[in-house]
């Protein structure tokens, strides 16, 4: 069965409701005036709604019982219709005022999250499932917008409406008011229990939704493998289990909310029943007018909506709180690989790269595990090409990633032109160092934009010339034959291109950046022999003036290098020219013999001739 990777579910955050929402404070300041106007309109609409029963009371008392004229009836009807219209206008204005700031807050937080994700080290992205990050940046922030535009305002309005309604009930008759208010005691006690259960379920459902998004992302990404291995059914079964888990959580969440709402709705009804009995008795005793009794029930009817609404909105507020906690979980993750407060600018930039006792362990490594790289000393002279050769898992790719600080050394240092790379401005370092990985990532953009991604303006060369040059070196002339030439938009991650074509575009991207140091992780592995030969020939010209560290899995790639560093179990065991190492190192001969060299045409013809 295909197992979907369970994405990282961050621990439940136990901050209080108030503390979580208080963290929005700085973001709320610029949108506060519009929000405040929205709140005022909503409050005014609530007050207008409450005024209608009072007009009704006057109508009953002065018109029906005190023998008022027809004119009085018409005036009362017009006042009620006017109040109704005013309420509708205020509700409309509330929406107009709050929608823009709520959408603006959502966008601001989303952009901040995206910026932060860009700054977080690769080790963070190794750990977090993409779906978790997707759901945090899309669904969770959508919840916040809806809560701000609707939930928060309605919660305040409903609470104020209930308080004003209660005050009116008390002012009309304290005994009826007290009976209605008594219902608040059991509701408050129940609310505490509900809050705990609902908050936990809410957090779980959001985390499970994130896991589900990761599963979709992985299966879409790996659809070819799933189909090729005929694992569609197993993949579906795995997905169904996760989807059902989420469904169960959603159902338990909905049950918890329904139970609470039933309580919130039924308690006021019970108190109203008791109020009816007491009210009738008071009216019979002439301690209450019929108009006052009607106004009491009309007010209770107006309050029924807000009271139920408070229950619903409490659920919405708790869901938004957990969404915000999830957002802050990511935002609170400190970026460990950052520019220093006062970056050092090196004098002459020559591209002299040195690793001095560089040691590295992945963050999730067992405490007693040996480091992946152990005390690496390597001196790569300006303009020199150094190949890294070693058996699989010896740490070659890991070593490359230390140079642009994708991972940070856990011991020792990496120096560029005599300066520790941790003392460089991060952007300046990554401009100086350009990378092409074996596993190429291309973006949904034109070939031109993909290739010029890291290119900086070069005096005497237009971007178009830089593009042409890079494509020529990488032997990526095929791009000019695509439907829109270099402006052809390639599919998600360049899936519409072959592996070799994608690799050549990634190589062109690294070359177009005109870096001081070029870091290449087996960039020619997917090319056929002839294309590789042509690329190698042109690459040799580029490499002549650029310090290059290149992982080689083929002898032909090793031939590009001035010197070769032999890596074994995370240590450099020898450094020398290809010839020197061949002559003196058994391990090198063993590694070279096992390198992946595709058969040449001559090999194939010879093999065919030899076969019976
Ligand atoms: N993101 C990661 N988290 C934890 N361990 C990792 C990670 N990436 C690689 N490793 C481990 O680090 C070790 C070195 O891996 P690395 O990819 O650097 O080797 P390599 O020499 O490039 O191998 P290959 O020639 O197969 O590409 C391996 O044991 C690998 O399992």
From TrEMBL:
The ABC transporter domain, residue ranges: 353-594
SMART domains: AAA
Domain ABC transmembrane type-1: residue ranges: 36-319
Topology of the protein relative to the lipid bilayer: Multi-pass membrane protein
GO MF entries: ATP binding
Main subcellular localisation: membrane
CDD domains to which the protein is assigned, alphabetical: ABC_6TM_Rv0194_D1_like
Cell compartment(s), UniProt: Cell membrane
Membrane spanning residue stretches: 31-53, 73-93, 147-168, 174-193, 260-282, 294-318
Pfam family membership, one: ABC_tran
Keywords carried by this UniProt record: ATP-binding, Membrane, Nucleotide-binding, Transmembrane, Transmembrane helix
Name the record gives this protein: ABC transporter ATP-binding protein
Organism name: Arthrobacter halodurans
